[in-house]
């Protein structure tokens, strides 16, 4: 009986129940500016948006103007064929993704608007409008988004240069440049 109970426990604990999901992570590296040359962690939207079928060795990460990207963008021309950095708030995650898609963006990274958030990932889900989006949508911790925007402002730069996605399984742990403010 004990042996059977142990086997059942091992089976249930090692086989996740349907509907439960472990966070999937996607990594990108800021190449420029150099003071934030770190590998950042993001999570993909749960039930909308596309996937990265291409690796971009050098692509611009352009902060949206206005940051919430809930309507027309003042810098939409710079988002064309690049990745947009957007701030959470003002409208749904899907609405933001569609605005960036309509401006020709290849993907959107939505940073939490809680600048002190350095550990809690929010699950981005579809709104109730039945709209869709084709470009990848990622969620970024608020502290990470804030630090990227702050660095760009300090250097007077309109965008960062990033590499996305990054395969961290091939990078030795001691070589991974992780943001010093984020727990891994």
UniProtKB/TrEMBL annotation:
Residues 1-19 form the signal peptide. PANTHER family: PROTEASE-ASSOCIATED DOMAIN-CONTAINING PROTEIN (PTHR22702), PROTEASE-ASSOCIATED DOMAIN-CONTAINING PROTEIN 1 (PTHR22702:SF1). The lineage of its organism: Eukaryota, Metazoa, Chordata, Craniata, Vertebrata. Keywords: Glycoprotein, Secreted, Signal. Plays a role in the modulation of physical activity and adiposity. One of its GO terms (cellular component) is extracellular region. Residues 61-145 form the PA domain. This is Protease-associated domain-containing protein 1. It comes from the Eukaryota. It comes from Apteryx owenii. Its main location: secreted. It is found in: Secreted.
């Amino acid at each position: 009986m004990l042996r059977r109970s142990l086997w059942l426990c091992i089976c249930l604990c090692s086989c996740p129940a349907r509907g439960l999901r472990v966070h999937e992570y996607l990594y990108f590296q800021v190449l420029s500016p150099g003071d934030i040359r770190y590998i950042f962690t993001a999570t993909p939207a749960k039930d909308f948006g596309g996937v990265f079928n291409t690796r971009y060795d050098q692509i611009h990460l352009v902060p949206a103007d206005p940051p919430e990207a809930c309507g027309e963008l003042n810098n939409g021309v710079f988002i064309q064929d690049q990745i947009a950095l957007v701030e959470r708030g003002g409208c749904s995650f899907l609405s933001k993704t569609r605005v960036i898609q309509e401006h020709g963006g290849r993907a959107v990274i939505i940073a939490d608007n809680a600048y002190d958030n350095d550990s809690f990932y929010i699950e981005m889900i579809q709104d109730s409008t039945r709209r869709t989006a084709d470009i990848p949508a990622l969620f970024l911790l608020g502290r990470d988004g804030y630090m990227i925007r702050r660095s760009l402002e300090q250097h007077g730069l309109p965008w960062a240069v990033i590499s996305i996605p990054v395969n961290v399984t091939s990078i030795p742990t001691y070589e991974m440049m992780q943001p010093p403010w984020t727990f891994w």
